[in-house]
């Protein structure tokens, strides 16, 4: 057995030893830590709402909220109170039980993911009311799979909200949102698999512990990029906020909701933003660890309560990324969005995972770095050449009917009485293009001269 392979049980034993510090807290301390996780998520949401409105206002040269509290910092709290005091309506044709439970189902799983997010090292326990405890509520050998599981439950709240409203447009918005979340969860899960291969664990605390010398954003950049795109699509944020449709003049699956139930959907969206940012920080950005320039001259940066500051800063930077996207990019078309998920992110994630697994297997067989680069680079080059050949012959087959003048499989988009898009293999008729201005002026002058000549001939006759 090679040394790399034989070290795997040692790594698993280390993970089991680290997980042994959990489950020893008294019941009152578990409640305190659970309340802390809830309060951390809520306070981050309240701050991120104000921060989003401020940053977008600055980007658009506006003032933004400045009335409630100093610098408008209590604006999100005022918005919450306003939503609480609005009239709570229940649609007459709705399934009332499911209609009321849907916002709850969408909100609770967003908070549950924080149970396994590490806010500090497991072996550096802090003191709370005289009791030593790690800065994490709990951890599991499959902690990341637990996060994916509870995130999947939140999708039920979205689709049930659209279905139980008894209205067509909320149902369409719910279906769009559900297809969007399911599609991007696949790419998200594949990006996690590369992290599992490097850390030899699915425990969140162990994944952070294995990033002591180098963060996975450096070792697995493709996985990080895929996850960043997937987390924006997973949370229905711009430019992927496609459950809302301006053409339908509705807001999507939550159209028929008001008051506290509508506020729960908004809360679930922002808590999901905080959750996916915390996951990205844990898996790729070193979790609670301080960045390199700080650890270089400060040995105690990762001890005590300081890790809570570092993970909070990283989460806030990712939330700023959400806000920056909202104020920068326009909304995509739904077909472009689904094509990005199924035809780009998922294939790229699978190919990248195969490359990572190949590199790890070659390292376990004690191959040197040059031979690994030669084998992996040769395989990638062969794959690119094969893709190039396929594209060339495919494009040639498409050009030949067009050059020969064959009409192809054309169809009338208005044959059914309303416009429909072409299906695969069908082509639209050529669209008449507007003539350049100079050509239009020349044609108009010619038509005017011909008309004048005809009028003169008529007068002469």
From TrEMBL:
UniProt keyword list: Cell membrane, Membrane, NAD, Oxidoreductase, Quinone, Translocase, Transmembrane, Transmembrane helix, Ubiquinone
Membrane topology: Multi-pass membrane protein
Reactions catalysed, as given in the entry: a quinone + NADH + 5 H(+)(in) = a quinol + NAD(+) + 4 H(+)(out)
InterPro entries for this protein: NADH_UbQ_OxRdtase_su1/FPO, NADH_UbQ_OxRdtase_su1_CS
Transmembrane segments: 27-51, 97-120, 140-163, 184-203, 215-233, 262-285, 305-325, 337-360, 372-393
Enzyme Commission number(s): 7.1.1.-
Record-linked PROSITE patterns: COMPLEX1_ND1_1 (PS00667), COMPLEX1_ND1_2 (PS00668)
Subcellular location: Cell membrane; Membrane
Signal peptide (residue range): none
Keyword Nuclease among record annotations: no
Pfam family, one: NADHdh
Molecular-function annotations in GO: NADH dehydrogenase (quinone) (non-electrogenic) activity
Biased composition (Basic and acidic residues): 451-461
Residues covered by region (Disordered): 399-461
Membership in a protein family: Belongs to the complex I subunit 1 family.
Protein name per the record: NADH-quinone oxidoreductase subunit H
Organism in which the protein naturally occurs: Streptantibioticus ferralitis
Lineage start: Bacteria, Bacillati, Actinomycetota, Actinomycetes, Kitasatosporales
Encoding gene, per UniProt annotation: nuoH
């Amino acid at each position: 057995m090679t040394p790399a392979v034989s070290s795997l049980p040692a790594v698993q034993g280390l993970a089991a030893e680290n997980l042994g510090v959990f489950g020893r807290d008294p019941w009152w301390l578990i409640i305190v830590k659970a309340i802390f996780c809830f309060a951390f998520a809520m306070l981050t949401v309240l701050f991120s709402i104000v921060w989003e409105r401020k940053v977008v206002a600055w980007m658009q040269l506006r003032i933004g909220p400045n009335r409630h509290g100093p610098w408008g910092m209590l604006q999100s709290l005022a918005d919450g109170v306003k939503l609480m005091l609005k009239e709570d309506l229940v649609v007459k044709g709705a399934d009332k039980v499911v209609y009321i439970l849907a916002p709850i189902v969408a909100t609770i799983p967003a908070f549950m993911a924080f149970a396994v997010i590490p806010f500090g090292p497991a072996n550096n326990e802090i003191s709370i009311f005289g009791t030593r405890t790690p800065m994490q509520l709990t951890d599991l050998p499959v902690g990341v799979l637990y996060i994916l599981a509870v995130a999947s439950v939140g999708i039920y709240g979205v689709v049930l909200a659209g279905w139980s409203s008894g209205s067509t447009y909320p149902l369409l918005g719910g279906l769009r949102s559900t297809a969007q979340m399911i599609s991007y969860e696949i790419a998200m899960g594949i990006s996690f698999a590369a992290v599992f291969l490097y850390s030899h664990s699915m425990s969140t605390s162990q994944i952070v512990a294995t990033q002591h010398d180098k963060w996975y954003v450096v070792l697995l950049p493709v996985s990080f990029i895929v996850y960043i795109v997937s987390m924006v699509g997973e949370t229905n944020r711009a430019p992927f906020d496609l459950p809302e449709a301006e053409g339908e003049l509705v807001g999507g699956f939550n159209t028929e909701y008001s008051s506290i139930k509508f506020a729960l959907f908004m809360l679930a969206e922002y808590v999901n933003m905080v959750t996916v940012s915390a996951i990205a920080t844990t898996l790729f950005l070193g979790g609670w660890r301080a960045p390199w320039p700080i650890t270089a001259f400060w040995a105690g940066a990762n001890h005590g309560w300081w890790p809570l500051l570092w993970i909070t800063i990283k989460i806030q930077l990712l939330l700023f990324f959400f806000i920056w996207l909202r104020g920068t990019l326009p909304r995509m078309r739904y077909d472009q969005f689904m094509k990005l998920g199924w035809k780009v992110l998922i294939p790229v994630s699978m190919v990248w995972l195969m490359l990572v697994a190949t590199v790890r297997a070659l390292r376990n067989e004690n191959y040197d770095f040059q031979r690994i680069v030669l084998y992996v680079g040769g395989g990638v080059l062969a794959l690119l050449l094969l893709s190039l050949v396929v594209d060339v012959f495919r494009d040639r087959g498409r050009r030949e009917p067009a050059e020969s003048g064959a009409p192809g499989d054309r169809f009338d988009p208005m044959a059914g009485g309303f416009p429909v898009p072409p299906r695969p293999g069908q082509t639209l008729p050529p669209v008449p293009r507007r003539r350049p201005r100079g050509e239009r002026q020349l044609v108009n002058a010619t038509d005017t001269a011909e008309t004048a000549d005809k009028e003169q001939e008529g007068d002469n006759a």
